[in-house]
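--- STAGE predict ---
source: upstream dedup step, 1 unique chain passed
mode: sequence only
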Amino acid sequence: MLTTWYRLTPLLITTFLPHIASASFVITEVMYNPPADDTGYEWIEIAHNEGGDISADSIQIVVNGISHSISSTGTGFLPPRKASVIVQDKDRFLADYPEYFGPLFLSSFSLDQYGTIRAMSGDIHGDVTTYESDSRSDNTGASLHNMDGLFVAAPATPGALATNPIPHFRAPEQSATLPPLTQKNEVDESCPPTQQIPASTGSGREINTILVWIAAVLTIIAVELCAILYTLYRKWS
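--- STAGE serialize ---
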């Protein structure tokens, strides 16, 4: 039994270790319907929980099933647990948000009134993020903010998290009206406070991994017991 366990241990490590070590991207904000023409003015705010910087050259942004590469306008890396912005046109974006100094990247994506967004880089993947149009963010200057998995219309704040850890948002109370828009890049005090989260892939993924390991070990034990019983049967028969 021990001999079989030692033979299978490398296979188990190779199979399940990537799931433990992998990290995920988070789509934190989406400007899908800006006040001006959509082309050149749409942008996506993104962050990741990896332990170090990720090269922009390795990242693919998948919008409505179409994959797009991104290119850097600066250092070429996405820092961990900080917001970066992916834009269609650097000059138009900076004209709208002149006080933005965070990581900025270019891509050729196009956003519809509703759709899906996903980011990936090698073995690092993010969940498929689904957003839907909101009349409060249609041509108003507001964007959709990811609040605990729910996209909610609020004043646009691209890069507001550029120097802070990724927040864990609390789901806001539903309101019939959108709070008044602040001036560009002005801090909106009504936004929920941010809380630091650890650089991990989430307790749910860790629990699933542990359960898989337990199932694998129990399967090996069951196979070994069957082999022993069969050997004894052959010996005594």
